[in-house]
């Protein structure tokens, strides 16, 4: 299928979206009309918010919010006796299992919720972090039922028939004072994580978060099924084609009638609550993510930056590819992400 509007179906120049001017100091609302393929009226707002730099960035003093949380809230079609009140987000851990890897092991928790039919995940490092909804007794279940859905303590052994067997290592966990855990709230990215696309750094961020948590011995990656910053894989691929025509990731989303970032973290905060994590150290460059988490009652005592390997030292666009440079630069300049742009890129408008 092609465009119905043939007059301006092909274009090469990036659209001028003046809403994302980082010099704005007051809350504004701008309507942008894009006269191509009948795309009209995308509204975005920019507001001044508190800064989460931890002294590690000097690129931004403003936080740019394009949150449209209500847009992705849908009624659940999954019947459940657990979700009796649809007025607030509820989550339940259905099952967990031990996942061994070459660098260690973690427990993978699978969650359901009353807002969508997606299987959101929690990658949990450390036996001290447990799910309340997983451990809770369920009507009619026996010990083997609890073991099969992962509601056991310690490590399973062949022939085990009880779920609540104290492991020798478990007895020492409560006596160890651990710092608030590292938490990464990560949105699914098939292109970056599975096929290793160089258009983004998502796969690198996930690997680095898991590496840091493995080193510390405890932490959580909440893996949300929000492909393409919430627009889905199909529109994400359409956005890639628009980028090849000269548009950046923000303008491409606007052309497809999406805000620059459609993600929502309601489910993530409920998963944190279920894991008894009220105080965390958050691995992120996104101030909007911090604000949403804190508004839900989770205390973020530290922002731990996710600095791309390509931008850490000896920046070389020829080595890492110009597309990831452009992607990261747009996230800083047009979406307010907290990163220091390498000196070699500061005065380059079109990489």
TrEMBL record:
Which residue intervals define the domain GTP cyclohydrolase II in the entry?
94-127, 177-305
| Annotated keywords | GTP-binding, Hydrolase, Nucleotide-binding, Riboflavin biosynthesis
Q: Which domain of life is it from?
A: Eukaryota
State any GO BP term from the record.
riboflavin biosynthetic process
Q: What class of enzyme is it?
A: hydrolase
Q: In which pathway does it act?
A: Cofactor biosynthesis; riboflavin biosynthesis
Which reaction does this enzyme catalyse, per its entry?
GTP + 4 H2O = 2,5-diamino-6-hydroxy-4-(5-phosphoribosylamino)-pyrimidine + formate + 2 phosphate + 3 H(+)
Family the entry assigns:
Belongs to the GTP cyclohydrolase II family.
Q: What is this protein called?
A: GTP cyclohydrolase II
């Amino acid at each position: 299928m092609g465009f119905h509007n043939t007059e301006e179906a092909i274009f090469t120049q990036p659209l001028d979206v003046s809403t994302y001017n980082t010099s704005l100091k007051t809350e504004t609302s701008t309507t942008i009309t894009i006269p191509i393929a009948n795309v009209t009226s995308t509204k975005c707002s920019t507001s001044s918010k508190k800064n989460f730099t931890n002294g590690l960035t000097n690129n931004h003093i403003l936080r740019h919010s394009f949150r449209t949380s209500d847009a992705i809230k849908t009624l659940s079609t999954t019947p459940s006796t657990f979700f009796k009140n649809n007025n607030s987000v509820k989550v339940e851990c259905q099952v967990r299992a031990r996942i061994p890897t070459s660098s260690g092991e973690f427990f993978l928790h699978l969650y359901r919720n009353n807002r969508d039919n997606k299987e959101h995940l929690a990658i949990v490092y450390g036996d001290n972090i447990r799910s309340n909804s997983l451990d809770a007794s369920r009507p009619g279940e026996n010990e083997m039922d609890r073991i099969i859905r992962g509601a056991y303590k310690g490590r399973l052994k062949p022939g085990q028939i009880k779920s609540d067997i104290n492991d020798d290592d478990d007895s020492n966990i409560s006596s160890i004072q651990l710092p608030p855990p590292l938490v990464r709230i990560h949105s699914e990215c098939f292109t970056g994580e599975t096929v290793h696309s160089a258009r983004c750094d998502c796969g690198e961020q996930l690997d680095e978060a898991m590496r840091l948590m493995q080193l510390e011995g405890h932490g959580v990656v909440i893996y949300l099924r929000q492909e393409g910053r919430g627009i889905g894989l199909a529109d994400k691929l359409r956005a890639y084609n628009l980028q090849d025509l000269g548009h950046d990731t923000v303008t491409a989303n606007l052309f497809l009638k999406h805000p620059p970032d459609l993600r929502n973290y309601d489910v993530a905060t409920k998963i944190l609550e279920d894991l008894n994590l009220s105080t965390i150290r958050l691995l992120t460059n996104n101030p909007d993510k911090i604000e949403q988490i804190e508004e839900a009652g989770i205390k973020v005592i530290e922002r731990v930056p996710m600095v791309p390997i390509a931008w850490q030292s000896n920046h070389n666009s020829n080595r890492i590819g110009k597309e990831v440079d452009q992607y990261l630069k747009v996230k800083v300049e047009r979406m307010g992400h907290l990163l220091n742009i390498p000196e070699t890129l500061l005065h380059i408008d079109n990489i």
